[in-house]
Amino acid sequence: MIDQINAILPQTQCRQCGFQGCRPYAEAIASGIADINQCPPGGNEGVIELAHLLGVSPKLLNPQFGQHKPKSVAFIIEQDCIGCVKCIAACPVDAILGAAKFMHTVITSECTGCELCVAPCPVDCIIMVPLPVENEQSLSPVQKYARTQLAKRRYDAHCLRKEKQQVEKLERAKQKRAQLVKMQLQSSQQQ
Amino acid sequence: MDEILIAIEVAYATPEQQVIVALDMPEGTTVEQAIQASGLLNRFPEISATDLKVGIFGSVCKLDQPLTQADRVEIYRPLIHDPKEARRQRAVKR
To answer: What is the pLDDT of residues A24-67, one digit of tens each?
Structure first.
């Protein structure tokens, strides 16, 4: 069921619903914690699809969580970028290419338009650029599906990598502590 | 005996054009080998082959760094302005 709900969600990973991503929101819907009308990027269309799937009556998007907007992508004004990596850390789908003290660039085809990179930028050099409406409307369902699948894959890979890094960090900290204890033991024995 | 292949990507981006090349490379492939295999140096002559600045997922690494499954090798471009100088100028303006 969670997968079916997640398949309807736009995979923007924007957290406007109040959860850490589309999948966590799908889990919350499945367990009854969250309502079906909390996803602004999905819009009323998305709410209707969710209602169908769950066999409940459709409702309007809850404006408390935001307004449905045409799809945009982030764009970095290179004149101002200072290479601080804050936007890269914020991006849930690894759509920004760059490193500390090097130019940061948004990979347009990867960007979901979640806007999570905009606020962390200390020099306000990220703007949201709406995609041409006619291009968006001419997208076939298959193309749209491919796009959400890409975003989902990127988000999953991103989460997996972060998890791995966290485990490695804890492991290093553990080893350091063990070494420290050993050293303390040795020095107390010498005394 | 079959070699173990790992799926990696090599990426380069400008504001106008961003390219991600997906490759299956043998285990132990280095960053440099992946970049060579990607063909990006030929596609973008502006990339300095002698002074490559590269990394994996936002952290700078050396060219001889071996890759692991799902790594994205990134070729970086320099900043346009020195951040310290830019800050100084912003401070003067205020």
So the answer is: 999 999 999 999 999 999 999 999 999 999 999 999 999 999 99
ipTM: 0.90
Listed residue (A189, A184, A105, A108) closest to A147, CA to CA: A108
* Window 1-40 of B, Cβ < 8 Å to A: 11-15, 18, 20
- pLDDT tens-digit map of A112-140: 999 999 999 999 999 999 998 888 888 89
Tokens of A188: 């107390």
Domain that holds residue B83: 5-93
Residues of A with Cβ-Cβ distance to B79 under 8 angstroms: 81-83, 101-103
Q: How many domains does chain B have?
A: 1
Report chain B residues whose CB lies below 8 A from the CB of A79: 80-81
